[in-house]
Amino acid sequence: MADVARVAGVSAQTVSRVSNGHPGVVEATRSRVLEAMTELGYRPNSAARALKSGSFRTIGVILFSLATTGNVRTLEAIATSAAAEGYAITVIPVAAPTQDGVHGAFTRLGELAVDAIILLMEVHLLDVARVSLPPGVQVVVADSDAGESYAVVDTDQADGTRQAVQHLLDLGHETVHHLAGPALSFAAERRTSAWRATLEEAGRDVPPIERGDWSPSSGYEAGLRLAQRGDVTAVFVANDQMALGLVRALHDSGKRVPQDVSVVGFDDLPESSEFLPPLTTVHQDFAEVGRRLVEQVLRQVREGVHETGTRLVPTRLVPRASTAPPPQRT
């Protein structure tokens, strides 16, 4: 800093004011200081400035998997929204969804110095209160049933599922089979519960579920099993990737989509409109989820408050060519 001051012909205090973006510096002086910084290769010490101001302008993100579409797209939205607010993100994947694993992630984020934490909780870890988060840490949670204790932002899983199942019933299907996600996934179980409730409210039979792991291959295996049953005319699939595998399995088994079996997914991946046939699905607004997560956690940081409650982001059904009335029985 002293070298920059000498080359620019100003005081060290003026260099500090320029480094910190202080508005009370004459533009010509600011230009000389910036030119001197460039000439000398000087970069302000952001860590030192953070220690002085008490703000690191960084949000930590803890998540259990980078393999799922929802986590990846939500993380992308968090990064974009944080950058718009002048914040960076630090991502800590947790190998095992255990109390020790989560506490270890909090410890690492504490060492890396972050202002707040967003948890992308894909399993029921917070729901059953097996993890106690460190006191005094501003936290917002995605995909969890922990709204009594934390601020939660989630897609409206239940309403999206209701729209999907009701769409199939309205087409004339007697009931709707379900290919669910992993049993430990909060989103998968919320969709399964809503599927069951919608059928029960309509007075329809509730078939046994098939279960996958979100991957197309697990959807394919489930599709082969469903294709062997003569009573399957409609399937609600918990995500689009499993739906892709299921559609292929139906095709390989001699079943036409949608003439013999209608299929609805959940996510509305960018490529879902390019499936063969284009997939009817439930649209999730991942960008809005990420924006609200960042907005919520930064409000807590700036106002110094701890908020609770669940805020839902609406979903909507996107009808395409993979659904149709059931085949006529002869």
Automatic annotation (TrEMBL):
<keyword id="KW-0805">Transcription regulation</keyword>
<feature type="domain" description="HTH lacI-type">
    <location>
        <begin position="1"/>
        <end position="53"/>
    </location>
</feature>
<dbReference type="InterPro" id="IPR046335">
    <property type="entry name" value="LacI/GalR-like_sensor"/>
</dbReference>
<dbReference type="Pfam" id="PF00356">
    <property type="entry name" value="LacI"/>
</dbReference>
<dbReference type="InterPro" id="IPR028082">
    <property type="entry name" value="Peripla_BP_I"/>
</dbReference>
<dbReference type="InterPro" id="IPR010982">
    <property type="entry name" value="Lambda_DNA-bd_dom_sf"/>
</dbReference>
<feature type="region of interest" description="Disordered">
    <location>
        <begin position="310"/>
        <end position="330"/>
    </location>
</feature>
<keyword id="KW-0238">DNA-binding</keyword>
<dbReference type="InterPro" id="IPR000843">
    <property type="entry name" value="HTH_LacI"/>
</dbReference>
<dbReference type="GO" id="GO:0000976">
    <property type="term" value="F:transcription cis-regulatory region binding"/>
</dbReference>
<keyword id="KW-0804">Transcription</keyword>
<dbReference type="Pfam" id="PF13377">
    <property type="entry name" value="Peripla_BP_3"/>
</dbReference>
<dbReference type="GO" id="GO:0003700">
    <property type="term" value="F:DNA-binding transcription factor activity"/>
</dbReference>
<protein>
    <submittedName>
        <fullName>LacI family DNA-binding transcriptional regulator</fullName>
    </submittedName>
</protein>
